[in-house]
Amino acid sequence: MFELDLRSRKPLYEQLVEKFKEFIFSGIMEPDEKLPSVRTLSQQLTINPNTIQKAYRELEMQGYIYSVKGKGSFVNHTVEQVDTARLQEIRSELKKLLAEALYMGMSPSEMREIIQEIEAEGSEHHD
């Protein structure tokens, strides 16, 4: 289900958060679908349960999942609403990065190539 890069500089919990978001956005995980228990996922990935718990807390804080005491964690219905706010943040960050890239000498055509590469990678995952 998951492949985490143990050599990455990015913390494992952040990698988990990104993976779950990817599954939610792509429709692999649907609203009200139960996430694996902390214990189960910890055993499958052979990582500390605290790492899983931290990722789940982060996802819940961002509004992607909700918890039911004694039942577990589930994909939230309001992901579309969360997306709008997050998209605004991303747009703002992206503007800053693009302005910096232009200032550093990257051409608009190079930026378009990067976008096309990302689109191509995305379509490979959805096939």
Low-confidence stretches: none
Share of helix, binned: 55-70%
DSSP strand tally: 2
SSE succession = HHHEEHH
Based on the coordinates given, report the CATH architecture of the largest domain: Orthogonal Bundle
| Beta-strand residue fraction | 5-15%
Please tell me the overall pLDDT.
Answer: 87
Trace the largest sheet across and list its strands: 1-2
SSE class: mainly alpha
Q: What features would you describe in this structure?
A:
The protein has 2 domains: 12-77, Winged helix-like DNA-binding domain superfamily/Winged helix DNA-binding domain (Arc Repressor Mutant, subunit A); 80-125. By secondary structure, it is mostly helical. The chain is 61% helix and 6% strand. The two termini are 17 Å apart. The mean pLDDT is 87. It has 5 helices and 2 strands; from the N terminus they run αααββαα. Strands 1-2 form a two-stranded antiparallel ribbon. The chain has helices spanning 12-25, 38-45, 49-61, 79-103, 108-125; strands at residues 65-68, 72-75.
Could you name the key traits of this structure?
mainly alpha; 127 residues; 61% helix; 6% strand; DNA-binding transcription factor activity; Arc Repressor Mutant, subunit A; two-stranded antiparallel sheet; 2 domains; transcription regulation
